Amino acid sequence: MNASTITLHVPQRSKIAGRMDFFQMASGVLLILFLWAHMLLVSSVILSPSLMNGIAWFFEATYMAQIGGPAIFVLMVVHFILAARKMPFKQDEWKTFRVHARMLQHKDTTMWLVQVISAILILVLGAVHMFVVLTDLPITAAKSAARIQSGWLYLYLVLLPMAELHVGVGFYRIGVKYGFVGRSKRKWFQKTENVMMIGFITIGLLTLVRFMLLNIQG
Amino acid sequence: MQIHHTDVLCIGAGLAGERVAVEAAMAGLNTIMLSLVPPRRSHSSAAQGGMQAALGNAIMGDGDSPDVHFADTVKGSDWGCDQEVARIFADTAPIVMREVAHWGVPWNRVVPGKHTYYKGGKPFEAEEKAEKAGLIHARAFGGTAKWRTCYTADGTGRSVLNTLDTKCLQYGVTVHDRMQAEALIHDGETCLGCIARCLRTGELVAYLATSTLIATGGYGRIYKATTNAVICDGGGQIIALDTGLVPMGNMEAVQFHPTGTVPTDILVTEGCRGDGGTLLDVNLYRFMPDYEPDKSELASRDVVSRRMTEHMRKGLGVKSPYGDHLWLDIRHLGEKHITTKLREVYDICTNFLGVNPIHQLIPVRPTHHYSMGGVRTNRDGAAYGLKGLFSAGESACWDMHGFNRLGGNSLAETVVAGRYIGKRMVEYTKGATPSFGMQYVDDAHKKVQERITDIVTGRKGKENAFKIRDEMHDIMMECVGIFRNGKDLQKAVNKLEELYDRSQKICLSSTCKGMNPELSTALRIRGMVKLAQCTAYGALMRTESRGAHTREDFPERNDKDWLNRTLAYWKEGASMPTLEYEEASPYYELPPGDRGYGGGVTIPNELPPEKFVIPEAAKENLKKAKL
Amino acid sequence: MNRMLTLNIFRYNPLDPDSTPRMQTFTVQEYDSMTLFIALTQIRDEKDPTLKVDFCCRAGICGSCAMVINGRPGLACHTQTKDLPAEITLHPLPFFQLLGDLSVDTGSWFRKTGLQIEAWCHSDDKAFDPTAEEMRMDNDLANEIFELDRCIECGCCMAACGTARMRTDFLGAVSIMRVARFYLDPRDKRSEDDYYEVIGNDQGVFGCMGLLACEDVCPKGIPLQDQLGIMRRMMAMHSVKGVLPRPLIETIKKKGCCHAHAQS
Question: What is the pTM assigned to this prediction?
């Protein structure tokens, strides 16, 4: 408690700092779970486009896409705002951190910069992706393939690894920050995380390849 | 010059200084603590082993009492200690251990049930009592009849210091760190504070205080190979000796620790041997039982150090580029024990020696470790010669250690003396009506300023401080070590006299605006040479062997002529100290006798019977001390 | 072995108006078991006595000699030259106030923070009874408390903390650990609310970004991040009491928590 801030009023015990931190973590976890589910569902196209269509139809019919979609978007924005409190938007903060990271040559410190940059890219590219998809419901394999083939591929080639990286590192960092991943488990966790990250990026790339090769006319 | 006013001034912020500061601050007195380093960096933090107190909770300490502790302490001191003080210490130590536990020290506690302990490298089983569960536990240390050393793993100094420091924080003790006390301010009768040099800016600052405490630890840095920290340069003793009024007690009583490591001189705790570690020679033969069949490795430190040196002189030491050494073996204690209860030892071995003590032997040899001598005080911690000046801890010769202190007794002394002397200081401070004559502040300031000018300008001569220091180191190592003799000591005294003369003519070899670190060293050297001379001269004149003071030419303990304490004064303008002697103890609750280890012959003393009676006043005082 | 070592040392004397920050190079002959402490002492004794560098225990126990060694904060006395390349670059610790050359003022910062987080056992000291037995305590708990009391306040963790570098009011893992030490201690009578008041904010637990450097550079190997994580979870769960269902809070709190004793 800073004595200079309690001069004007009787202070109330505020729990806002803890709640913000908790909801930053909770929104992160939800987004991670969503993204993984999303990747698995979309990748069903690899097995068969009609399987993917079936799944999409299910989400459409239960209104999960119409409501869930915008909700995820809001969640993403809220998560960004909460997390952005820590971002080095001031130039001297940015510079300090860069100099520090270069001096220390420390993986977890450098990875945080990756988090910051990927967060901003995801916010922009993810928003575009969501807008395009959600304004053109229902989702079908054919429509997605058409989009990919018409030049959107490049967007996804950036968004996919950025999202997976952010989610992978973020997942690990939540575990660390909240004391779930202790010192003895850290190495194992990092390795698992790397495997999962590569796994998801591979699945994502395969999905993209599948979309590229999908015959839109048929 | 900046002037600070305070009720109590503590010079030194180790365990003793902080304990006194807490006592004063809790009594509502304004307290300032000066320190060369931030308080938690004080050398007390390096003490690994523990604190002796007769709590008697551990099964191996069963039946222990302050009486047994008292007897161990007096025997350990080779009857050189003040028995009234040793009694106060032994009787209040358990209270103080509980008090710091109340404040937050996480002492290791008794775990009931069967445990495997080690003695002399051999395992045995003992069952801790269920009714003692959760009380403060104890481990074995050398020279004791019972296991009574309270500990927190092997970071006892660290954890007690941290706890006391939290209390200083809580009770608002003002800490001025990076301050080097350069001179006491006094009017010839009363101490009024000190002049200190700020190690941030190089400026002089005056502190005026009703009572001043010297708690600056030992002066081990007069030796080259010492386990003491770089800051243990005897700063407190120097400013007291410089007054010409305050004597140093028993400066020749210097302890060598059996297990300083080679080549870094970093100490590994006595707990290693207490927990069952053994000493081996070049043939990996365990030699201590041959010399000390009863106590083996766990005889008192002076004895073990001497036996080790004796054994190496027989050519049974291990040869190394850094000189001969012996081995300490703790491998049999097992990985778990070594990495938990002896973790600092494990860290030191792996980080500084490149030795893994779980599988390898640790190279050790006796290394300078502790100064039993220091600012001579009376029972209440008040220094001889100046009113309002107190001293506690290693810097003092309160004199519960006599000519050899037991492991675990000095760390305990810091807080036990801190509590007792702190209370006496509070009484004194509350009753005193000092008048701070500015002329005495100016006098002291002028003296320090002139010395600085001498050194900076080189107007007195061109001697190099580092060179004088190195020469002092060499002569102390060569001639005032574990085994001493008249010829070598005379050589040391002559050389130190010459060095003292040269130390008045020091000149800086560098210039630097603000604080110059070379000046800090240069200002200290003269005083260090003085302390070294008190040590060497006292040792030369004491023609007997007692405790850690071993004369090859006078091997017996001579109670007839030397049952006394050396007081070394350094009169203004003198080139040598003046020695006086006082009786070792006001009375002898435990009559002089055989220690039961170490061997040797004693020339007895016929003391009058009234010397064996405890005076009523002492009994009264002891009762008060326990409240 | 026995290389010629080149030490590039940061020099600056803030008290001298003519002094500007610069690097100065010294060469030292290496020998067996040499530590940076020995190398720097040699430089000071023989080459440049004005070099400001703090040494005290020279045994890795007091924490005085922390500095940035080839980019990494660490203790000079604890660092053997054989583990370093022949060219060694030394900087003072960032984050703390520079006193000159390699010397920084860690003491003032730790004292100031100690006051801020009230790092002492909040109990009734006057209630101490010299004739009574001490309060009993489980030995495992005593060990756990000591585990958190082993910090030597060298400052390496703060210098390595990216968060603290950007936001100088961040208390750092070391302060959280100091609080955790008292949280664990049954002798400290503070409530969760009281602790929340002290560290439940963005200067405290919620400011940490999980960069882990604190723990990775700690010369004593103290689990700083683990401890901070546990405290952060406690504090976060404390803040959502009444928002989330109690059983959920309890489950999350207990998950992987090494503080079995504090829970009971």
Answer: 0.93
